[in-house]
Design the sequence.
């Protein structure tokens, strides 16, 4: 109790005792004066005791009482495929296959294409390879409108004759075609060497089913046909032809590895050269 309050209490006690003697009925209620003193003291003391400072927690109302959060970071646009699909150096079968996107994989879209139905992706194999993906079987998620737009590179052309090796060829898979109940895996070979080829051997492995087939022959049809009347018996320098193997089931979208052997003589005789390619046959 503070020193300032003590004299006040003494004065009040004396005053109360005097009044109590003169109040009517004081003898009948001796506790009345005491209660009056206690109440007075309580008021005095209460006036001197500081109340605790009020505290409060602000409530932020940002629409239905929700506290705002940072907007989510935009996610990179991705693409997946429902059928294994080749990825090429340009938008179309004239360009070289550099990889593929398989069912169950996802790849990041890095550029838009000025050609409809194509996007440029980074292959998910960690190689960093960027290539053109045909979106026939593709499903895209995310916005690509802000991505840079790519224009197709020039269509590949055969090397000049003075720059080619004596034995040289390029090979590229073509679209699947059906012969009766068989599905052909056609590959177009182009002779960019200096000597004609007169026979071939083609071994293809369907890595989706692990089935392997081999075919060989002494003719090179000029197109994708089940039966060719008098097909050319050689591929001269600067010319191309088709070779194929035929599977008894639909191989569209399956992943393949092929070993191609071309020779300068019939029945795989003479000088020979071998190449290997990987590809995914596209629907006809």
Sequence:
């Amino acid at each position: 109790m503070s020193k300032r309050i003590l004299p006040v209490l003494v004065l009040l006690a004396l005053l109360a005792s005097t009044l109590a003697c003169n109040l009517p009925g004081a003898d009948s209620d001796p506790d009345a004066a005491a209660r009056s003193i206690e109440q007075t003291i309580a008021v005095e003391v209460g006036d001197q005791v500081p109340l605790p400072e009020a505290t409060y927690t602000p409530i932020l109302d940002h629409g239905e009482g929700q506290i705002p959060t940072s907007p989510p970071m935009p996610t990179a646009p991705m693409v997946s495929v429902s059928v294994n699909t080749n990825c090429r150096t340009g938008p179309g079968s004239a360009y070289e296959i550099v990889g593929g996107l398989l069912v169950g994989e996802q790849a990041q879209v890095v550029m838009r294409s000025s050609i409809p139905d194509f996007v440029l992706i980074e292959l998910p194999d960690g190689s960093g390879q960027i290539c053109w993906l045909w979106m026939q079987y593709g499903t895209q998620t995310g916005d690509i409108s802000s991505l840079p737009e790519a224009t197709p590179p020039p269509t590949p052309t055969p090397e000049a004759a003075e720059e080619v090796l004596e034995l040289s060829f390029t090979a590229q898979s073509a679209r699947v075609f059906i012969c009766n109940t068989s599905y052909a895996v056609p590959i177009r070979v182009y002779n960019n060497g200096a000597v004609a080829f007169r026979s071939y051997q083609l071994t293809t492995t369907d890595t989706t089913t692990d089935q392997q087939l081999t075919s060989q022959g002494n003719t090179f049809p000029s197109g994708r046909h089940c039966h060719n009347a008098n097909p050319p018996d050689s591929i001269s320098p600067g010319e191309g032809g088709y070779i194929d193997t035929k599977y008894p089931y639909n191989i569209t979208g399956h992943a393949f590895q092929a070993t191609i052997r071309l020779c300068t003589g019939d029945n795989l005789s003479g000088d020979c050269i071998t190449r290997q390619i990987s590809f995914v046959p596209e629907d006809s």
